[in-house]
Specification:
With 97 residues, the chain is an alpha+beta fold. The mean pLDDT is 88.
Length: 97
C-alpha cells in the first residue's frame, strides 16, 4: 500500500529532551542502567540517553519522559536496538521499580 502525502514533511529537529528530564535520568541511571536492569555483558563506549518504548516506525518519537528514557552505554544501547523484543521489557521493568 502506498500512502500519499500532499504536504512536504517538516525537517526533523531531532530528539528534544528537556534539561530537567535529562538531569533526572542521569541522576537515576549514572553511567549506564544496563547492568542494574539486567542486560548482559559489560559496559563500554560512551553513554547516551535512549527511549525505551518503540516509536512503531511511524516517523514519530515515543515520549521523552523520565519513565521512557534510560541512560545506556554503547554496548547496551546496541543490544537493546538489535533485540528490542527481548530487552525492552527488561528495561521497562527497571523503570517501574
Amino acid at each position: 500500500m502506498t500512502l500519499r502525502r500532499y504536504a512536504p514533511l517538516k525537517a526533523s529537529r531531532g530528539t528534544q529532551i528537556p534539561s530537567w528530564v535529562r538531569e533526572a535520568v542521569v541522576k537515576r541511571d549514572g553511567y549506564c542502567a544496563g547492568p542494574v536492569a539486567g542486560l548482559e555483558g559489560r559496559c563500554y563506549g560512551s553513554s547516551e540517553i535512549d527511549h525505551v518504548r518503540a516509536s512503531g516506525a511511524l516517523g514519530m518519537k515515543s515520549p521523552s519522559t523520565i519513565d521512557n528514557l534510560v541512560r545506556l552505554c554503547s554496548a547496551h544501547h546496541r543490544m537493546k536496538t538489535s533485540d528490542g523484543r527481548k530487552w525492552r521489557p527488561v528495561l521497562l521493568a527497571y523503570l517501574e521499580r
